[in-house]
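Sequence and structure are kept together here, with a separate record for every protein. An example record follows, reproduced without changes.
>
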Amino acid sequence: MKIIGSAVRAGNIIEYDGKIWRVVKHNVVSPGKGSAFNQVEMRDARTGTKTNIKLRADETVEQLRADEKEMQYLFNDGDTFTFMDQESFEQIAVGRDLIGEAADFLTDNMVCTVNLIESEVVGIDLPQSTVCTVVEADAVVKGQTASSSYKPAILDNGVKIMVPPFIAAGTRIVVNIEERTYLERSKD
């Protein structure tokens, strides 16, 4: 199905220059002079390489329809991640470059959405958020109580994010996977 350049959004799977691409980010830019365009960051579904393009509203690209299948993350062996179909128990191995930076947040038995085109994996969608434990957090600086002040913290998966001053080491927090940001304290 053909779509106009300004309608391309993150998560779309498109065909561009004869290759299958998964849109990672998009930003509609309206310069002061000239027509608006869509700045698109996308990843090649086969090789994992990233590229940036500008799509004008009058350009069209082919949007591909991918089948979605819920699969459970099992384990990783270096940069290869193994997922299992929960119905047929069939396993697939996917490279880190296809998952991207979100791979840091994969945990055992996490259910992810795998996007397939003709039985070929073209993308993996993790849940929007996950629970992590803060392993290391800087001490609170006295007088730094403004609500907008944040401090660096290291999570149990090695990822460094900014957290509010009241978060200490050992605290379980909910993290937005895509933006790598603190959302709230975990309720469990």
Summary: The CA atoms of residues 71 and 85 lie 5 Å apart.
